[in-house]
Structure to design on (188 residues):
């Protein structure tokens, strides 16, 4: 920590000498909170596989989640992959223990903070670039220039839409945790 402070002071001093006294670090460049995608997996044995599956689906729907995959075998096994609000992941994993005997439980996270910041920065830059090109288009007089600017605007718009789509998917993955459930019916 002390070394970081010394390096920061040296950088600031050098910046002042080079005429960069108006430099201000962007406080949002390093968020205090990390952005995480969480997922869980539970393997358990249950008394009645059909009742178990029905109860799980009802809970997922009550949480405004959804079932992504459902596979039931003839051997009284069910494999479910569900999406539920991230805030409900651990409680739901604990709730599953009330429906049967948990054999294994895994909780994992993926830090996507840098990825999210990168996408947001690229999107912001493209939006600014689009504004500049639209301004150039309004000033253009020559048909050739107009066509070239419109071609570039179309390319930029395509990139903006792709980034917006990626951001939407990433934010949804952060908001809605993935939970895999592998249940086997107890043999009596």
């Amino acid at each position: 920590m002390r070394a970081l402070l010394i390096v920061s002071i040296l950088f600031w001093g050098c910046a002042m000498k080079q005429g960069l006294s108006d430099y201000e670090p962007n406080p949002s460049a390093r968020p205090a909170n990390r952005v995480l995608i969480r997922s869980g997996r539970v393997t358990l044995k249950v008394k009645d596989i059909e009742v178990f599956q029905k109860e799980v689906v009802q809970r997922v729907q009550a949480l405004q989640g959804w079932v992504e995959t459902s596979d039931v075998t003839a051997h009284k096994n069910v494999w479910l992959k569900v999406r539920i609000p991230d805030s409900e992941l651990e409680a739901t994993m604990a709730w599953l223990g009330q429906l049967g005997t948990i054999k294994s439980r895994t909780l994992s996270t993926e830090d996507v903070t840098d990825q999210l910041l990168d996408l947001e920065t690229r999107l912001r830059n493209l939006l600014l670039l689009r504004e500049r090109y639209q301004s150039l288009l309004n000033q253009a007089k020559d048909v050739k220039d107009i066509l070239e600017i419109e071609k570039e605007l179309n390319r930029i718009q395509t990139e903006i839409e792709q980034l917006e789509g990626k951001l939407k998917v990433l934010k949804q993955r952060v908001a809605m945790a993935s939970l895999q459930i592998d249940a086997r019916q107890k043999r009596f």
About this structure: The chain has five helices and five strands. Residues 29 and 183 are 44 Å apart (CA to CA).
